């Protein structure tokens, strides 16, 4: 993955890529590697609204289920339907084809609560 000025990370291991006022959301390489092979993903519906740090879905791996936390407040504008039939895309390509949802960001001020790539790497390498 390439570090980018418009890519931010939550402490709950989700990432968001900001383009204008749209955010693409997924889980990090670290998160998917800790979970192992993902076998099922529960994602929200179009139009659902979430606050920052609110649970928006879950991922099920062979031995565990983990909640997904929304990195910024917003409304769901797209869901990656490909994950419903091929959830391992999250393992194989978490920052490209493995994205989960797109949101219309309602509060960009929430970016101050997120980590840069460098800060996130430090947080997982403690």
UniProtKB/TrEMBL annotation:
Q: Name one GO biological process term.
A: glycine decarboxylation via glycine cleavage system
UniProt entry tagged with the keyword Transferase? no
**Which InterPro entries did the record assign?**
2-oxoA_DH_lipoyl-BS, Biotin_lipoyl, GCV_H, GCV_H/Fam206, GCV_H_sub, Single_hybrid_motif
Cofactor(s) needed, names only, are: (R)-lipoate
> Where do the coiled-coil regions begin and end?
none
Keywords for this entry?
Lipoyl
**GO CC terms:** cytosol; glycine cleavage complex
| PTM-bearing positions, type N6-lipoyllysine | 63
Has UniProt tagged this entry with the keyword Transferase? no
Any note on cofactor binding?
A: Binds 1 lipoyl cofactor covalently.
Domain annotation Lipoyl-binding: ranges:
22-104
- NCBIfam families with a match to the protein in the record: gcvH, PRK01202.1
Assembly, per entry: The glycine cleavage system is composed of four proteins: P, T, L and H.
Describe the function of this protein.
The glycine cleavage system catalyzes the degradation of glycine. The H protein shuttles the methylamine group of glycine from the P protein to the T protein.
Q: Which family does it belong to?
A: Belongs to the GcvH family.
Name this polypeptide is given: Glycine cleavage system H protein
Organism, by scientific name, is Leeuwenhoekiella marinoflava
Tell me the classification of the organism that encodes this protein.
Bacteria, Pseudomonadati, Bacteroidota, Flavobacteriia, Flavobacteriales
Q: Its encoding gene is what? A: gcvH
